[in-house]
Amino acid sequence: MHEAVFLVLIALHLLAATTWVGGVLFFMFAVVPAARARPASGIPEVLGRAFRPVAYGALGTLIITGPLLLFWAGIGPHMLVRPRFWTSAFGATLALKAACVLLVLILTVWHDAVLGPRAARGGPVRAARLAARAIGLLSIAILLAGLLLAQGL
Fold first, then answer.
1. Structure confidence at residue 53 (pLDDT)
2. pLDDT of residue 128
3. Of these four, 7, 62, 92, 103, which has the most CB atoms within 10 Å of its CB?
4. Residue 73 contacts residue 91 (beta carbons within 8 Å)
5. In the chain, which stretches have pLDDT less than 70?
6. C-alpha span between 153 and 151 (Å, rounded)
7. Diameter of the chain measured on Cα atoms
8. Res 153: pLDDT
9. Mean residue pLDDT across the chain
10. How far apart (Å, rounded) are the C-alpha atoms in residues 22 and 107?
11. What's the pLDDT at 1?
């Protein structure tokens, strides 16, 4: 039974990560170039509104399943308060991943609530594009850190 729960958590985490990172990369490499080719099309706004619930659902799933997977691996609050944990390779990688996750959350909210709507109203798009690129790069870094953590590094 315990193994089944662990497998479900892993599956949900991987599905959510695939959904998030795949969506971000799709926007970076397909939606943005299409919008540049047809600036007045409204493509980013329409697709962004349609994908937002899926993306936020994926982020929420990641935020829930990530700590649960750590706990399942025996890394609970008792370990997280030990300075020695954070100086290990695993702890340093986890800290990097957590910092990137926090930045992605902040940038996503800022992009979706401020920069994106401003650009959609005809305002400057440069800041929105930079934030989106940063979200994409940080998402890839999070994915790579997750792979390292899964290997115990």
1. 95
2. 87
3. 62
4. no
5. 1
6. 6
7. 54
8. 73
9. 91
10. 17
11. 64
3-state DSSP call for residue 85? helix
Query: How many residues in the chain?
Result: 153
- The pTM assigned to this predicted structure is 0.87
Report the pLDDT value the prediction gives residue 49, as an integer from 0 to 100.
86
The three-state DSSP-derived secondary structure of the chain is CHHHHHHHHHHHHHHHHHHHHHHHHHHHHHHHHHHHHCHHHCHHHHHHHHHHHHHHHHHHHHHHHHHHHHHHCCCCHHHHCCHHHHHCHHHHHHHHHHHHHHHHHHHHHHHHHHHHHHHHCCCCCHHHHHHHHHHHHHHHHHHHHHHHHHCCC
Identify residue 95 by its one-letter amino acid code: A
pLDDT of residue 59: 95
Which tokens go with 84? 């020695």
Backbone angle region of 124, left / alpha / beta, with phi > 0 → left and psi within -120 to 50 → alpha: beta
Q: Where are the domains of the chain?
A: 2-150
Separation of first and last alpha carbons in the chain: 27
